[in-house]
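new request in #modeling-help
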Amino acid sequence: MPKRSAPVDVVFHALADPTRRAVIERLGRGPAPTRELARHFDMALPSFAQHLEVLARGGLVTSHKQGRVRTYHLVPAQLEVAEDWMEAQRAVWEQRLDQFDAYVTQEDGP
Amino acid sequence: MTRRDDAHDDPDLDLRLERVVAAPVQRLWAAWTTPEHLTKWFAPRPFTTTECEVELRPGGVFRTAMRSPTGGRSTSAGCYLEIVEHTRLVWTTVLGRAFRPAIRSPGRPMTVVVSFEPDGAGTRYSLLAMHGDPAARQRHLDQGFREGWGTALNQLEALLA
């Protein structure tokens, strides 16, 4: 099976969630501290922190801590990875074919 | 695999994916050509396929509609160019029903060739997605960056669909 392009994979995973996409949109308007970001979402802070961690692992955001406040920034270059059109096409088809292979080999498949 | 594509791959414009899967070609063919099956795998998750229309003949329509997790809807439509049962399936988004040029085709123009070949107990298949000119692609990228991140993300969602 062909190997997927790792950076694209991780970026797409990070973006495959509405909360995380909303965080990216917010950070596109400028850096923001954790609590301010969390305020817009109806979820417990630990769950929200996990979303931030996925974004950080995908390299889409970075953070720095000053005193007790952690502030998040967008990393534009990493979003560019996902924006490259051909790479995006490849990621879409790879994922499709992963799903296809799983479907045609399962018991109740075609 | 032996290729019978008339087109030559262009690395700047085309994607080719090849895989071997442990299932007979009949099942693969059914999964690619039956709406009931296509809706189960075609949309890259977390997107879901909400509609699927297949008119399995040259000039027949191949149309899918997908829903994003946030409720956005996008469609992709085209027509089949070539159908060789259990062997080869070709469609394009450049044309609509009965080969009529698609003036407002949703998404970006492409032609896709899927070829199947028995491989032991399983099947080897390849997918070739052919696109237009690289200049258009680059223009698209440059624009996306000037227009800000909101737009970039919208485009990304469209691409994911």
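bot summary: The first helix of chain A runs from residue 6 to 15.
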